[in-house]
Amino acid sequence: MTENDLSDDHAIRALTASYTDAINRFAIDDIARVYDDDAVFTMMDRPSVVGREAILDSLRSTVARYQLIMQLVHSGVVQIDGDRARARWQITELQIMIDGQSRFVAGRYEDEHVRRDDGWKFARRTFTARYLGDLDLSSGARPDPPALFPLWGHD
What we know:
Layout: H1 3-25, E1 35-43, E2 49-50, H2 52-63, E3 66-81, E4 84-97, E5 102-116, E6 119-133
Parallel strand pairs: 1-6
Antiparallel strand pairs: 1-2, 3-4, 4-5, 5-6
């Protein structure tokens, strides 16, 4: 990996961390800078949302249903190819809804990035849940769909 690749890898990891930080603080306006103008966001089996402003509106309505969202990003892999990149992140999330119900989520983000003059942006962000239910894991695992893209030709 070259010094430029390391710098880009770091920038993509920082972009992902800043998204998670903003979600945890319910600071959706802070997320505006991480998405490209015509980005696509897909959460589980919901219809995809296209465009930065539509994504922000969707996220605002989502976080409005919660007292707490504590999203934790775990292992991640990043593949850089010039001004484009792909990444996959494992995440867990603790949630308390407005009505007091709690939920545990485990899944992955699969991201496509594009480099712009002002830095790396999400071009596409897709979340798949492997678990969605009680913290004691009694709800059972969901099927693990195939990865959206290979990172090194062997997924």
